[in-house]
């Protein structure tokens, strides 16, 4: 496999012919997927960059599996407008790397193909992947993407601030909302010029689904057809999370202090003592270990109100556009990139790199259940008496207790509806119940319209 890097503003278009079962290529021929058949030609991949040892090791593995394929990477996050324009003109990339919450919209618009024949032909066992992630990329009766990576939230806290206030990480892990409220009151500090220490950051607007689920509610029905934004439990969750900010002078004050922090540097909120606690994605553990290894930290899972671990999972997925000129190579590529052996090689490369730097390997959440288990067993040390071992254990526990919003043909519109509602509340433009009732109407109309259009396809 040869590799070509293309600037993100340029869409590489392969003119090689393709053939596959269940779909038609540009010449109208059927296309067949077969794990025993060689693949060759150009493969243009949009939205993926091998910027670290995890990506590069897996790209190298794909090269070994497809020596006669010339891969061109359009690096940078997937440009949705550029991609949809390419599809509409009949010159799409051969493979895309997208956010999982985009897959339903792409599928409903006919921009990507169902992967059932790809999975069957290449022998890809979709049952090896985490169920919530598969649900995000399944639409109708078909799978439209192969998921990879899982981002999950864990509770992160400043241990010194907790101790000074007579608190423990259990007081801020979300299991007891009264305890979180009380801890926030004790932890936050205000000086003459404003808020100087954020007590607790409930991470709105992004984490409304997490707080709602912790309160026993889903924003969307399991079949992706019915919005539940005005559910009393969702309203209560938003009221609670917003009240956390109001106790500290309002969201504006918290956001201003949050934005002033050196988030990726040694002056981050935990190292500087300007944040008591927050739920956040596990990838930040590596950042903290790199830039502030001696910061006073404490970790736990985020928990629902019954005390059970909970995480709102997100991540990426591979999908093959309709009209792909080389769907067979695209399928072989995504198979190799998400295979257990490939992930193990990538984890080995990451573990070796961390060891050379004298730093712990904090795990790798691949979305492949088999790979996750073997990586944890072979490369992760949770026996040490350190906060980093606590973080790793919390991460893997969270990874086993995830949920996601189901795929639907109005993904973007649905997300915009609830996020706009939360932002209106944060900006003081509406009360939680009013904002969510209005969002419910907007979201349900978008869902009804999109599902009706899907039924007419």
TrEMBL record:
InterPro entries: Bact_solute-bd_prot1, SBP. Keywords: Signal, Sugar transport, Transport. Residues 1-19 form the signal peptide. The keyword Aminoacyl-tRNA synthetase does not apply. Transmembrane segments: none annotated. The keyword Kinase does not apply. PANTHER family: ABC TRANSPORTER SUBSTRATE-BINDING PROTEIN (PTHR43649:SF30), ARABINOSE-BINDING PROTEIN-RELATED (PTHR43649). This is Multiple sugar transport system substrate-binding protein. It comes from Stackebrandtia albiflava.
